[in-house]
Task: structure prediction
Amino acid sequence: MIRFDHVSVLYSGSAAPVLRDVDLEIEEGELCLVVGRTGAGKSTLLGAVNGLVPHFTGGTLAGRVTVDGRDTADHPPRELADVVGVVGQDPLAGFVTDTVEEELAYAMEQLALPPDVMRKRVEETLDLLGLADLRHRALAELSGGQQQRVAIGSVLTAHPRVLVLDEPTSALDPTAAEEVLAAITRLVHDLGVTVLLAEHRLERVVQYADRVLHLPGDGTVADGAPADVFRGATVAPPVVDLGRLAHWDPLPLSVRDARRAAAGLRETLSGLPVPPVRPDVPARAPLLSATGVTVRYGDVIAVRAVDLDLLPGQITALMGRNGAGKSSLLWALHGAGPRHGGTVRHTPRTDEPAPPPAGVPRRAGGSRGLLRRRTPAAAQAGEVALVPQTPTDLLYLETVGAELAQADRESAAAPDTARGILDRLAPGIPGDSHPRDLSEGQRLCLVLAVQLTSAPRVVLLDEPTRGLDYQAKRALTGIVAGLAAEGRSVVISTHDVEFAATCADRVVVMADGDVVADGPTAAVIVASPAFAPQTAKILAPLPYLTVAQVEQALATAGAGQ
Amino acid sequence: MTASGRRLPRALHPAAWWLWAIGMATAVSRTTNPLLLALVLAVLGLVVTERRTEAPWARGFRYYLGMALAVVAIRVVFRCVFASGITPADHIMFRLPHIPTPSWYAGIQLGGPVSLEATLSAATDGLRLACLLCCIGAANTLANPKRALRVLPGALYELGVAVTVSLSVAPQLVESVQRVNRARRLRRAPATGMRALRSVVIPVLEDALERSLHLAAAMDSRGYGRAGTATRASRRTTAALMLAGMLGLCTGMYGLLDGTTPRALGLPALAAGSLLCCAGLALGGRRVRRTSYRPDPWRLPEWTVALGGCAAAVLLFWTAGYDAGDLDPSLYPLRWPSLPLLPAGAILLAGAAAFAAPPPPVRAGASAAAPPAPQPAPAPAPPTAHEAAL
Result:
């Protein structure tokens, strides 16, 4: 179906090729998973399938890519639209029309299909992806999962033989991601579509893959059955990490298989003490205590009378589905977002006079000028820092160095304070590079450094794990642990259970504006089957959350013998 | 045909609304009779209230009305202040203080007497312009702009797509500005002055650029702009045909609308121009190969509405059967204008569009943000896709 014949891709301005002499053949009806670190060339590989690389992106492609017998050198992407369907990360960015039905028909209109055929295919696709109720809805009003299903549907109506999906679930919450992945597996099994899928959160998809293409980062592609490839892959889900640790053969890819293989491991571990994920936080006076915080948008109550104490040295994970009020709560705690009720009180630092309490509820829709200059008292004093969901919104200068210098000036800190912080978070980012050229993780670190320059005692991170690969997440875990060790309180809103399990002391779950659960990570996360991390599912009833814990337990047991 | 209770609601073909509105506008441009103009306004109002949908663009007619009012007011105020066009026979209503102008500026008089005749003439002139504006407003309100763009001939397809895309990108841009502006406040000392503008504009522009690249890639991989059959020679011929055609159209329009030019310049030039344009569009359209999903049908109601509008235009242009002077009543001597029956009838006939067009579709849940207004007529069951396609 898809053939790569000695393919190399070199972008202008870069020294090393992204892909080097890749030889591949993907059969019809396969679900092929593309894995690798950020920047390893996953998107390039996927883009080459329908000719976006190099027709659209530029660069030089040597060798030959053929899809269904058509050479991409002679066929630009538009001439391959009837063979290859491409779905990107952000569905909203790719929509051309504004209602579901018109979007589904768009590709067919371009292919000049007769109206009666279009009508029939639109109805079929609406049913296939469960979109029939949404047919007249505006695309912008749909939830993320629905949007992504529409995006998939809009390429399916052209009846492509190949479906290319570049991280289709990275912007979605777990439920929406399940929805989309269920739709994709159904397509593979029912229609025999060949699917090429890149995905960061492997724990969700590994068990469905027929085949894995692993890009180690040096331009080569390793290709094989999932169980073989993951033995040495640079990225792996926890279930694979655990399998590697315990030397299981064949390597299990699903929780079910791992649980069967884990009987012996559970027995070994049952007699051992469980090492904690993180050292205990000594109970001290809270840095910030919020009582009855309420946020409203019109008639919708986003946050309903939430009480929250943030202790020094504690890492709190804020979880819940999209629209549960996580972001609104973080913004209200920071003070830059609206708060319609309740108080947020900061405990004064011991070495300076007490700041005025920020206890006066603010009214909604006050002065909403374009360039409003009001900054809340506590944030002004540098007590609370917030890194927003799209960190790049904060950056507006041409170089990393200029941004850092600006941060020093804003906080009246000594020169190079911000630079020092950045070098601690992510060493080796050159000062003259453009912020947009950094990787997702580096950009996050840059914004975090800018925000940390004022030495805040409370750090709020709004969905920092979006688009981060396993290594970047591990680095973030280290950074966050470092911040907590300095006596700060950190709150991270996230959808990523595995991440929360490795880094948080405490988990707060929100739903519909309320806090529905608040407690130590192990207690909250393990109690719910939906939230439990893979390690917990495999080793239940033993209270293990992470692979690192298992490793540590085995190591201490080994040392003891 | 006018028994609206039994007809299935559907959207009228946007081209029918536009033809109707252009016909009305043409009729309006031929007259300054305030009675006829008021009649046109009334008809527009009736049709818009009867046949507009609940879509966002359909709420815009009041803004056009406001703009029309402003046009009349500005015209009257200017005429008063600059005190032009006053003859000795005029009735002077009052005098504004005269502001002497320097000698090199003598052509223009500021202040002075304000005459009834000059003010009335300004008001009727303004009213005509206002009516023209409202005709366009009515078309915009009644016809879905995106569907209207879809009926553009193939040669203009790219233009239509550009407009459609920019329409859907605009709200995203607003959202982007709000998000960045909100994020700005997270910095310790948010920038001020020019720097503040920059701190909003740069992230928003970067965002927009990134998004447009995404969109372009998505459109490309979904088959936008697949090659048709166009050679270099045919492209040149198309351009030449279009250019000549446009020239003909402009000349013809001018001849037609300005009563003082010789009649011979009007229709023949218009006809030749439109012929050339059609040929150019047909030739250019050949390179775009696409079909459209659920095309709007053109049936009896479309014919009725479009012909009603055109009839009004033709009757006011063809000054037969009534006194042409009634279209442009003289202010000397000053008297109440008379209402010519035939043009009034023609305008009322065009107003029948309010009942000739099928009722607009009611879509529950078409817009979650704005709950649909209660329907006065006993609306039949919400249209299923099946009905709407009929």
Q: What stands out?
A: The CA atoms of residues 316 and 384 of chain A lie 15 Å apart. Residues 352-375 of chain A have pLDDT under 50 and may be disordered.
